[in-house]
């Protein structure tokens, strides 16, 4: 009997997280914030740059968006050693993106990704290992990219023009702290997967046995077990496997950070140094999104955008239009795609009846 109950609970938890009704709250929050920003700052004539749109930059931006998603599909298919078909890989990525939009940013799609892979026929242990590999690679990209953008942008990575000195200092501290945390986490995962998972497991259990951290001990123990399992599943893969995974990771995250620069360049004349500074500011902007407690960072992402990128755009009204367009392309689009892919996936995995039940909830 327990063997039947556990998968059923797993399925129900997954479907609860992906309820279509979860779309409503982030849409209301995000559009309310953008609407308020327009109401507060709108001036006639401020949207004049729209008439000078550059088709080449718009086309490049769309190509980057499509290429980014294609890169994600490629990466998950090859990380899972081609167990996923191209269609299954596309379904997984679209629903993963959808879940990132409807769950808090700190949780993201990682909370449902192992179950998605498991439902595609991959054993749960391997599913967890593959998702931990993506997390490790994503974090390593951030660890390597930050020194590069700091070298390029320096102190200009922080929006001095929009924040007072105390807030800039707070942002700098948050950025450095997040970088240190991500670096330690990535190196621990790297050490655990390739060298000694048991020692990392013991370290986590001992660390979270300290007073004040004991309530997280069970989660630390579970993570330690997952690292041991991930190491057993992944350590035997050759250099070709990891090279392909690393290059596809670098590709998708670079494409992700290029979108805002392409969007601004499509309407505003900017220099190449500014374009790469915008790329760098994406990494400091990400710190705000990492601590967002709203689904998909709704409201917080919109509100913080002018602080980081407003100086490159000009008027507040034009900046608010850029916010709206950026979120349509990188957030609301995936809510729509999720509403398309989700019922198809549930029908394929669980049957038509379950799809009707979930879509009606």
Automatic annotation (TrEMBL):
Keywords: Cell membrane, Membrane, Transmembrane, Transmembrane helix. The keyword Transmembrane helix applies. It is a multi-pass membrane protein. Its main location: membrane. InterPro entries: L-PG_synthase/AglD. It is found in: Cell membrane. The chain crosses the membrane at residues 23-42, 54-74, 95-117, 140-158, 170-194, 250-271, 283-301, 321-342. Pfam families: LPG_synthase_TM. This is TIGR00374 family protein.
């Amino acid at each position: 009997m327990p063997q039947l109950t556990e998968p059923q609970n797993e399925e129900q938890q997954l479907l609860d997280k992906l309820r279509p009704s979860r779309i409503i709250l982030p849409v209301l929050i995000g559009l309310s914030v953008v609407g308020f920003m327009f109401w507060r700052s709108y001036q006639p004539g401020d949207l004049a740059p729209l008439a000078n749109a550059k088709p080449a930059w718009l086309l490049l931006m769309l190509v980057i968006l499509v290429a980014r998603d294609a890169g994600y599909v490629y990466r998950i298919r090859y990380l899972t050693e081609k167990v996923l078909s191209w269609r299954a890989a596309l379904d997984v990525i679209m629903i993963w993106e959808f879940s990132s939009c409807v769950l808090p940013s700190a949780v993201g799609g990682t909370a449902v990704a192992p179950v998605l892979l498991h439902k595609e026929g991959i054993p749960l242990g391997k599913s967890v290992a593959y998702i931990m590999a993506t997390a490790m690679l994503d974090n390593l990209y951030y660890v390597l990219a930050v020194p590069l953008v700091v070298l390029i942008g320096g102190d200009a990575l922080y929006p001095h023009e929009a924040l007072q000195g105390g807030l800039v200092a707070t942002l700098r501290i948050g950025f450095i702290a997040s970088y240190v945390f991500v670096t330690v986490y990535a190196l621990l995962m790297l050490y655990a997967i390739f060298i000694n998972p048991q020692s990392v497991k013991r370290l986590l259990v001992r660390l979270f046995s300290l007073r004040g951290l004991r309530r997280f001990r069970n989660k630390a123990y579970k993570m330690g077990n997952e690292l041991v399992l991930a190491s057993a599943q992944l350590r035997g893969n050759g250099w070709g496997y990891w090279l392909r995974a690393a290059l596809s990771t670098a590709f998708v995250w670079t494409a992700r950070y290029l979108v805002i620069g392409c969007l601004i360049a499509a309407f505003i004349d900017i220099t190449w140094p500014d374009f790469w500074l915008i790329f760098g500011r994406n990494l400091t902007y990400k710190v705000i999104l990492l601590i967002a407690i709203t689904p998909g960072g709704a409201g917080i992402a919109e509100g913080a955008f002018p602080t980081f990128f407003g100086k490159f755009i000009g008027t507040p009204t034009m900046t608010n239009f850029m916010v709206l367009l950026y979120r349509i392309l990188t957030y609301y689009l995936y809510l729509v795609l999720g509403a398309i892919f989700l019922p198809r996936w549930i029908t394929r995995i669980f049957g038509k009846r379950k799809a009707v039940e979930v879509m009606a909830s």
